Amino acid sequence: MASEKPGGLPVPYGAESIDAFLEVLQGRRSIRTGFLRDKPIPDKLIEKILEAARWAPSAGNSQPWEFLVVRSFEIREKIVEIFKTQMRDKIEIEEATRASAAA
Asked: pTM for the complete prediction?
């Protein structure tokens, strides 16, 4: 429920909503190890995750994303290798840029 400012204008998010949102942000963690690679994720959980992602803010509310659910372990491993290669390339480029800027 929206409350009102003293001038009568609606305030869409009360302090309680902001506190709850802040608690969620402070409690989130990135998990990079320990996945159960051979344990499938239930469709209902995937649907909830995709629903949360769909509601994420975007510039101009354009929501310019597409989501893919990759269930194949082999394809996920290929994606990981591509990512690692790109990260190594990015680091090399940044190091070369810093070195030439310092010279």
From this structure: 0.57
